[in-house]
Design goal:
Blueprint: H1 9-19, E1 22-24, E2 27-28, H2 31-55, H3 58-93, H4 101-124, H5 128-146, H6 150-153, H7 158-162, E3 165-169, E4 172-180, E5 186-191, H8 193-204, E6 220-224, E7 229-232, H9 233-253
Helix pairs in contact: 1-3, 2-3, 4-5, 5-8, 5-9
Length: 254
């Protein structure tokens, strides 16, 4: 553990800069590497300090303490500040390619049509397969329609749904629900008449397809028997969106 010596603190900082690809005095090639190396080094120092205390090596413990003081100061002054500036710059310069409005409309229409198909199928044949397909298409439709995060729609509780109210927007009546959003904020989720009808059907027949009726979440799809774990909508959301987007893309490619 010779590295934890106050005399080597400058060399340690130079090594971190070299590994993180410090190109100039103001830019890292891999800023996150520089930040993580500093964090890992402090964790190693903490473990080494524990060993020294056990072995009662006071002289080495004093050197380690001095090294940590120098390391913390150097990380704060020369590394962490540069890392934060580099990360902020990368975020500003990141190119985000947004989907075209026509593509979003195409996906929305496809998902809505498929939801209608499985709604009709489930009315005549109440199987777990039809139930899961209906639930997945309705979920994606809600995400697209409301432009909400998957993590927000997964938090739709039964009591939130039943506490919803009718709201009017541009002459159309919608069912409005207040749900828990990111960082505990309250956000609104809007359902049109058909979406509300689908959700009510999902809730009404959840017990018939093996879903635990007492579960407080609206978005439960099914129960995994071998682990007795409820699968929530959020587990499938990104997969479903990718799956249905790919289906539409393949139609045009063919």
């Amino acid at each position: 553990m010779d590295v934890f010596s106050p005399q080597l603190s400058d060399r340690v900082i130079k090594s971190i800069n070299a590994v993180a690809g410090l190109e100039t005095s103001e830019k890292y090639a891999f800023p996150n590497v520089a930040r993580e190396l500093g964090t890992l080094l402090k964790k190693c120092a903490s473990i080494y300090n524990y060993i020294l205390i056990e072995n009662q090596e006071r002289e080495k413990k004093k050197d380690l303490k001095d090294f940590c003081v120098l390391l913390e100061q150097n990380l704060s002054d020369s590394i962490n500040k540069t890392v934060m500036e580099n990360v902020a710059e990368l975020r500003r310069q990141k190119v985000v390619t947004l989907p075209q409005e026509s593509d979003i409309t195409l996906l929305k229409n496809f998902v809505t049509n498929r939801a209608a198909v499985f709604f009709d199928r489930f009315q005549s044949d109440k199987t777990l397969s039809n139930y899961t397909n209906l639930a997945s298409f309705v979920l994606v439709a809600l995400i697209i329609f409301n432009r909400r995060r998957p993590g927000e729609t997964e938090r739709l509780l039964l009591k939130d749904f039943y506490s919803g109210s009718v709201a009017e927007y541009e002459g159309q009546a919608y069912f409005r629900i207040n749900i828990r959003g990111k960082l505990g904020r309250t956000v609104k989720l809007y359902l049109d008449k058909f979406q509300k009808k689908c959700v009510e059907t999902i809730l009404q027949f959840r017990g018939d397809v093996g879903v635990e009726v007492s579960n407080p979440y609206e978005g439960v799809i099914s129960t995994c028997d071998f682990q007795k774990i409820d699968f929530f909508f959020a587990f499938f959301e990104c997969t479903y969106i990718q799956k249905y987007s790919l289906k539409i893309s393949n139609r045009f490619d063919n």
